[in-house]
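Submission sheet (multi-component)
Chains listed below:
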Amino acid sequence: MVSFLAPSFIAVAIGAAALVVFLHFYQRRRAQREILFSNTRLLKSLFLERLPHRKTKDILLAALRALCLFFLFVFLARPLYRGTLGGSSSPDSGRRVFWFVFDTSYSMDFRDAAGAAMTRRSEQAAKGLAQAIRFSFPDALIGAVSFAGRLDQEGALAPANDHRAVLEFASRLNAGLQETRQASWANWISSRDDFNATAGVFVLTDLARHGFTTPVDPAAKRWKGVPVVFVNLAAGDLSNRRLIVNQHEAGAPAEVSIRCYGLAGTAGDISLVVEDGLAGSVLATGRVKDCQKTEFPLKQFFGPGFDRRALRFVLPKDRLPLDDAEALVVRPAAQENLLVIDGEPGRRAGESESFYLRETLRALRYQGRWSWATEDEARHILADSRAADSIRQIWLLHPHKIEAATESFLRDFLDKKNRKLVVTLGPNADKEGIEKLLGISLTGILDGGEGKLIIPTRSPDTASSQHPASSIQHPERWLGNVSMANMREFDLSKVRVDKYFRVRSNGSAARSLLDWQGAQGNSTALLLELASYKAKVFLWTTTADMEWTNLPHKGFYISLVQGLLEESSGPSHALNVPAGQAWELLDSNAWAQAPSAVAPSGRIVRGRIENDRVLLGPLSELGFYKISWPNPSLAPGADEPARVIATHLARESAESDLTPAAARDIKALLGFDASWSVVPFSDILTDPRKSVALLKSREFSRPFLVLAFLCLFLESAVGLWKTRK
Amino acid sequence: MSYLDPEVISRIEGLRLIPRFAEKSTMLGSQITPFKKGSSTEFVDYRLYTPGDDPRRVDWKVYGRKDRFYLRSYEGECNATLWVVLDASRSMNFRGPGRDDKWSFSCRAALGLIYLALKNRDACGLALFADGLSEVIAPRLSWDVLSRAVSLLDGFSGFGDKTDYQKSFEQLTGELGRSQLVVVMSDFLGDSVAATAAALEGLSLARHEVIALRIIDPSEQDLSLDFSGMALVSPIERGQGGPLEIELSEFVQEYRRSWQQEESLLADRLARRSIEYCVFSTSAAPGELLADYLNRRSLSLKTFG
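Outcome: structure written.
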């Protein structure tokens, strides 16, 4: 008996074939011109002689075209044979174990227009299928298991003749935070002792393609004879859009990019809603102009009292928080007033640090006000208390001699909260004046000399033992060693300057961006971050005229300056945490008591102090955690303490991509000769017995595709033959 | 514009259309028959006496010397009657792209032949036919024939809807005298090859010398019409069926092959009855083709006569 997985295509197949025949008989070519000719007698005899062949060829061509289309649509209809749609017999050859495999990956939290998650769909499907199995195979044993990134082996339901247990099992399932790995259940079931007794497997999944990317144990590809039915829960009205908000907490540009996939070309139909991350209220709505990139202005959400806030970007029709960066804590771009004090005014432009800094500020379109001054001019500016209060950053470029008056106003500056001082140092810098100003010793820090420039990256690696400061536990790794010979060729533009590692110098902790490993093995920090009074100070031992650095000629220079400009004056803590991990505060000296947080579900998460670190979490829920500080005045960045933490999916996860799996993906999972079929969720609702019958059927659509191509080939051959005649 | 073309006249001036056999006539013409010895004063040859010869023609002086009977042969002189028979069916009105129609070509050639015959003091007549004889100018040795022919052809418009060679030539036979030279100018497209050949053979069987000049347009030969797509091809004459809706380019090769076969078949059948067959294409000048044909014919007669 033949049935079809997509019977609607059969009607299309018949229609297409009929259309070809219709066109053949009623759309013949018409003469374009009438010609009077004297010898039609001969022409007519030739015409009559050829007429029977011509008619035969035309009919043959039309038949081949009709058959080609017919076979093609039959192929799309996916015919099955040996199916018993109303079957009531017992399973063949002693196989009587059925498995229900439930996908509980993160994407199963996708909700349809009615707000129902796909896990509820799988519950519905399981109910229908279990009843159908009970009806068709009364003696069947039904087992159930769930999987996501790995199989929940402990929670698996052993095969039993109890379909209610399966329904209870399904009702307890909720989507987790792991991505899909279909290989986990395939490996497990195929390695079970009762595999030979398995009559069929129903996999209730969204059939996302990324779930099939994990390699399968070759030994597990022995599914021949064991039918697998994938119930595609994502079929129907679910669309496949992905929202990525390219916004970084530390960078904070004023605009955000949005990308969506799956509906390219209809971007105008997609609306975008910006919600308050905590209150859930709608702040603004807009339209996605381009599915590749849409700029969305954020300035409107910030103002007095809203320097930092949590925002959620939502595509209303797809309310699944699919992507890692959808929920963000964002703050406006740095707009601190900047005073640049040129320590060596009058130098040639190409040799002057102030020249490169000025050009960089222009290139960055720095939004704060910035002023250029000599030390004398700066003294006059800072004498005005209002002006002095408005300045948040001072860049002291290459100071030759720090006068007492300069030292005085700089000390006043450093004694205020949320201030930042950047000092560039060269061979002629007034080291004594700086040591006196900052109250530290620069000996051993600024020695310089021949050696290696070492740049940390963000990627964690086990190679951290090579770090000169390897005594400090740190996840950074070496990007590469740079010497004078290859400094110019080194691709510094790829280096991001948003992570730091620590070096210890003279017993005090300082953060360094760049290290200089001297010839004698002593470690010299090229860029040091340290605290002085209430402010943050950066010492940057690089100059424009030194051949060995030459940084202004690299793209890295601009990103380095940008990092310094936007580096907060107060302690900085990442406010985005991958879901499932703990929020960690490194500078724990200031606090004796850890904060607590309220999870999106309302659960309280209490922090703890371990090994000089404050840990909060693990934060297992996706969304915003509200932080409460035991003593806000002692919290890091006390004038602006962190209020929320946003959790997100790990960047490595591809769960948000709901591209459906192709046949080759499934074959890669089950093996080439496996019997499998894919049934949409709607079919299960309408006729679950049909899906059960699939277990005893085999799809044979491929021969029809071959026939379609054969007809196409023959049609071309006959057409060519006709033309040549 | 008159069909009496000075260019044609100038090309055939000085040539002669010699019949293979001359009729006995009381009138002396310019035709010197190579087959019959006549009674002129021009001595040709001696030959032995055979019973039945006129004893009056024995050369007794030779008998005195040789003691055998010899007859003296003289070159014969005769005058021939030329009939120019012209196809006046509608198909003769066909013209290929950029060329004259076959009718005007035929008229120029026909008037050229009439002029030539009269100039050589031979009687000449003209007949037009389609589905029967339509116009006849009886043969006479008079320039009046030429002027009548010119006026007839210049103003002619009564083309027939159909060509019936059998009927036309049967009617023509009634008009002809004994052993006359008949030049038929037609495209021979009106009927099948067999019917056309049979009709011409009928003229030949009535002891007339028949010359069939086929006047065709090149596009009739190779189907080189100025259109190659799907066309509705309608016949010019009746009796060839209804219009055909065909893709012309599909038939070109086969048409040319079939044309060659029919041409060969017609030529073979006519040759068996000693009917001279020659094809004139309208792509060339009529005077040039006519002059070339007359030269070839004279040469042929001298060689094989």
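Remark: The CA atoms of residues 15 and 292 of chain B lie 10 Å apart.
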